[in-house]
Amino acid sequence: MKRFSWPLDRLLNLRSFREKESEIELGRAVAERDRLQFELDSVARRRVEATRSRTQNLSVNELLSIEHYVSRLDGERDRLFESIAKAELEVELRRKKYIEASRDRNVLSRLREKKEADWRRKYLADEAAILDDVASGHDRALKAEEERDASPST
Fold first, then answer.
1. Per-residue model confidence as pLDDT tens digits over 11-27
2. Can you tell me the distance from the alpha carbon of 148 to that of 154, in angstroms, rounded to the nearest whole number?
3. How far apart are CA 75 and CA 142, in angstroms?
4. 151: left (phi over 0), alpha (psi -120 to 50) or beta
5. 3-state DSSP assignment of residue 57
6. Which single residue of 37, 118, 128, 136 has CA 20 to 30 Å from 6?
7. pLDDT (tens digit, 9 = 90+) per residue, 26-52?
8. Does residue 59 lie in a domain region?
9. What angle do CA 40, 46, 52 make, to 5 degrees?
10. Structural domains counted in the chain
11. Would you say residue 144 lies in a domain?
12. pLDDT tens per residue across span 92-114
């Protein structure tokens, strides 16, 4: 019997490809969000260090310089918060697309598995029928031979 083939294999391969593509896009979106979060953490650390340096005995110009630096860091922090919010939305969008692509592929995968299981059952049933025919044919040949041996020769 020929091996199992399914007419929708090409569609299944296409959906698998789309699923992998959307998974890669999701990974990129998550990486971008994480990069922005790391940058935000860095800004927060620099701000804390600058704030601590204000407690030292510094000149007015140095204090003013630190204030401008902290103000710039606050602006950068606000910009990063907005970017992270946008990145979170992008991650959620990519996650939804990935889930949809995964679901579409899973539907076809389950259908293929079901059809292959049906084919396998039929294949095994046909094979068992062939073996039964061979075995029963062999039994008939043995009986015929025994009858010939048992009958008196003339």
1. 999 999 999 999 999 99
2. 12
3. 97
4. beta
5. coil
6. 128
7. 999 999 999 999 999 999 999 999 988
8. yes
9. 140
10. 1
11. no
12. 999 999 999 999 999 999 999 99
Distances (CA, A) of 39 to 42, 77, 83, 85, 139: 5, 9, 11, 14, 83
Q: What is the pTM of this model?
A: 0.73
Which one-letter amino acid corresponds to residue 6?
W
- R_g (Cα) of the chain, nearest Å: 37
Amino acid at 127: E
| Domain assignment of residue 129, yes or no | no
Q: Which of 12, 19, 10, 7 is nearest to 108 (CA)?
A: 12
Contact 47, 73 (CB under 8 A): yes
In a domain, 125, yes or no: no
Mean pLDDT over the full length of the chain: 90
What are the structure tokens assigned to 36, written together? 């922005």
Q: Is 112 exposed, middle or buried, given 0-12, 13-18 or 19+ CB atoms closer than 10 A?
A: middle
3-class DSSP state for residue 45? helix
